[in-house]
Every structure is written in structure tokens, then in C-alpha cells.
Amino acid sequence: MSGRKIYSTELKLEIVERYLKGDIGIKKLAQEYHFSYGDIQKWRDAFQEHGVEGLSTTHGTYTGEFKVSVVEYMHNTGASIRKTAAHFNIPSFRTVSQWERIYFEQGKDALFEEQRGRTSKMGTKRPRKPKTNIETNEDLLSEVQRLRMENEYLKKLNALIQKRGRSEKPTK
Prior knowledge:
Elements: H1 9-21, H2 26-33, H3 37-50, H4 64-77, H5 81-87, H6 93-106, H7 134-168
Helix pairs in contact: 1-3, 3-5, 4-6, 5-6
């Protein structure tokens, strides 16, 4: 559950109309209604672009072509992320920001893929290790045995050298 609050269209319209009368600014409205400055800006822009319809909260899924057109519109016109979201009646400017990031980091084609939610772990099987043949296993085992014997031989040789060194030292 997100911490985002959904306000009625009537309340948004009341605030926007008060602002558009010109006798009160966005900051004063934000203080009076205890809303964020950005929310009121977003509602104002949406209302100016789409009228009352722009104030109704709609959530939907968008096609890859739509996402690409939104990002390209923003860059071709120089519009801000908030103005672009208002122009296309996208409820959250963060959505546009995310599309822009994906567009530049992963390319245009990445916007055609569904990116929401967790990646599914069901159905994705890990690749199995290829089975090694028996001859390879036997070769590896014999090499391990040879290396162990070599290691033991070197340890015994080192012990003999140290013993000889101790016996040759004169005692006082």
C-alpha cells in the first residue's frame, strides 16, 4: 500500500478555480488546504490542458509507442517532466521521469517491455551443469592422488632437511 492520497475531483477543481481567480497563490493554497505545492501545480496544469477531465485520477497501462512518444515529445519541445505529464494526462510526473531514464539507459525498445512488479522466478530454470564423462572424473581423481603424494613427499623431505640442520649445529 502506497502512502499516496487520492483526493476527489471536486476538491481539486475547487482549489484550481480559487487559484485561477487570481486572488490567492499556490503557496497560500497549499498552506490553507495542507497539500503539497507540487500537487496543486500538477492539478493546475492538468486542468489547463484537459479541463475537469484532467483532474480525475486515472491509472492505466500504456503502450510502448505511447511511452516513446511522451519521452520524444518532452525532448523535442523542451517541456518539463511535469508539463509533459499534464499534457498527456499522466497522473504522476514520476512515471514520465522513469520512462525517460529507461529510454536513455536501456534504449527505446526497453519501453515496450513490461517493467512493473517483481520478476517471475517460476518457470525460469537454472541451466544445469553439463554432465562430465566418467573418464574425465577418473583423470581428475588420479591427478588429485598424485598431487597428494607429491605434497606428502615434500613434507617428509622438508622434515629431513630440518633434522639434518639441527644435528650439524655445534652445541655449547
